[in-house]
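Margin note: ligand = pyridoxal-5'-phosphate.
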Amino acid sequence: DAHYAVSSWGAGYFSVGERGTVLVHPDGEDSPGVDLHEIVSGLDKRGISAPVLLRFSGILANRLRRLRGAFDGAMEEMGYGGAFSAVYPIKVNQERHIVEEVARCGQELGFGLEVGSKPELLTVLAVTAGHNEQMIVCNGFKDARYIEAVALATKLGRKIVPVVESLRELELVVRISKEYDVRVPIGVRIKLSGSGSGRWKESVGSSSKFGLFVSELVEVMDRLKAYGMIDRLELLHCHAGSQMQDIRTVKSLVAELSQVYVDARAECENLKYLDIGGGLGVDYTGEHTSSDSSMNYTVEEFARDVVYRIGASCDAVGAAHPTIISECGRAMVAHASVLVVNVLGATGPGQLARVEATDDDALDRQGEIVQPLADLIGAKQELTEETALEVYHDMSEAYEAALSAFGLGYITLRQRSLAERLYWEIRGRLAEIISTMAEPPEELSDVNLAIPETYFCNFSLFQSLPDVWAIEQVFPVVPIHRLDEEPTRRVVLADITCDSDGKMTSFVSGEGVTPVLSAHPLRGEDYRLGIFLVGAYQEALGDLHNLFGETNAVHVEVSNGSWKIADVVRGETSEQVLGYMLYDPKALARAITLDCERAHEEGLLNVDEMRTFLRLYENGLSSYTYLESE
Ligand code: PLP
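Resulting structure:
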C-alpha cells in the first residue's frame, strides 16, 4: 500500500491478494474477491489481448445501492418526508451495457436516466421501454423535434420532464403540448449566484452557460400563470459542476437552491422535484482532501448534508419536502471499469548497457589522454559510501566537459557514447548507495539521481484516458501482478501514439500524488498495469488520435468468488477507424494491389513477395489497431 495506496482509493472494491495480484470485490471489501490477473490471463488465452477494458457490473450495481442506502439512511435519520431518486446522465458513459445495467438496477432502486441531447433521448426511450415508472430528465439545448419526442413519450405514459433552459424552450414546450393535447410536466434549470469549486466551477454562477437567472424563473412562472398552466411546473434543477471536491460548496449551493425552491413552491403548488444536478465526487487519489482529483467527504456525508439543508429550508416555512433527485453520473460508474495495458518495453538511462573501460579508452586520436574521460573512468573505480559526494561532484563536471569536448571535435562518437554510459552507470550506483544511507549528504538527497525510466504501454491516452491529457486528471495505476516483489524501478508511462503528450506523469502512492510510479523490472514476459476508476467520461470523450480505436472490452460477472465473462466487445479494427475518416478500405487495398503489379512488372517484387505483402496489408486492415503479440 505504501507504493499504490489501493486501500485508500479502492473504496473496498480492490485489494492486493496473497499471491501478489490485484483482487476485485464487486460487493465491497468484505465480499470474496476474484483475481484480476487471472481474468486478464484467461482472456489472453482466448485471444482477447490487452489493451482491454474490463467492466464489472457488480461494482456498478453496488455503487447504485450505496447511493440509495446513503439517502435512505439520511432521510430516515432526519425524518425527511419526501423521497429520493437518482437519474443517470448517460453522457458520462453511453456504452450500451452500462446504460442497460443502470436502467435495470434503476428499476429495482427507483432510479431513472438523464439525457442532454436528442440522440441520447432516443436511446433512453428505447432502453427504458416497458418501464413507464422510470423517470427521464431532459436537459440540454432543445429544438421542436426534441420537444415533440418528449410530448409523444408523455402520451405513451412515460414519466419524462423537459428542463427548460431558456424562455424560447418554454414557449416550445407550451406550443407543442397544446398541439399534441398532452400534459407535459415542466422543469426549470436555474443559475445560482454562489460559486462552485474545482475544475468545473464555471458550471454555476451568473456567467455559466446554462440555466435561467432567478428573474427569468419568475418570468417563467408569470407566463405559465397567464397560460393557465402553472400546475405544469414540477421540477427545479441546478447543476453546480462535476467533481465537487469540497463539501462546503455542496452545502452552500444546496442551501441557495432550497431557498429558491421554497419560495417558488409557494406559488406553484405542483412543484415537487428538487433536482440537485450531478457533481458528487470520486476520490481518485484516496487522499480525502479538496485537491482536484480527490474529495473531502463521503457519499453518506453528502446525502446527510443535502437532506438536512433541503429539509430545514422547507420546515422553516412549513413547505412539503420535495422528492430529491440527483444526477450524479461520475460517482455511479467511475469504479466499475478498469483498463489493463501491457508494457511493451522501456527507455531511459537505466537501460544503457554497462561498459568495462580501461585507461586506453580515454586516449584521443593523437594518443593523448582525454581528461574528462579519464576522470569518469576514475570516478567509477573510486565510488564508495565515503566518497559518494566527491564522486558526484567529479563525475558531473567530467560529463559536462566530455560533452563540450565532443561539440568541439576533440573526442569521437564512440568516446562520447562511453562517457554517457559511464555517467549513467555511476549515477545509478550512487542512487543505490544513497538509498542505503541513514543520513545522505544534503546535496545528494536534493539531486534527483534516479531519472525515471519510461515504460511504453500498449494503449492510446487520447482514446482511453483523455482526461489525463485534457485536464491532468489523476487515475490510480497499479501492476496487477508481482505485488509480492519489491517494485525497484521508478517509471513514468508513455502510450504508443506518436505524440509526446501521450504520457502519464502523476501517480497515486501512499505518499500522495507523485511524479513517478513504482514498478517492477521487465523480465521479457508480460507485465500488466491496471488503470483504475476509468468508468466515467473516458470512453465517451476518447478520440482516434493516430487512428487507435476502441480497445477490447469485456463484461465480467462475479458471484461467490468466481468470475465469468458475460460479454466480449472486440476493439475496433483499422478498417473501421479508417471508415470514420471516410476512407474506403477496398479502394486502399486496390491501390496497393496496382502498385504491387507495377513493381512486379519492373522486376522489383516477385509474385510470392507480392502475395505476402497484399496478405499483410489486408490482414492489417481487418485487425486490432493496437500492437498484437507475436
Ligand atoms: N447533470 C448535468 C446537467 C451535467 O452537466 C453533468 C455533468 O457535468 C452531470 C449531471 C453529471 O455530473 P457528474 O458526473 O459529475 O455527477
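Residues 6-54+337-343+451-572 form a domain with the Lyase, Ornithine Decarboxylase; Chain A, domain 1 fold (CATH 2.40.37.10).
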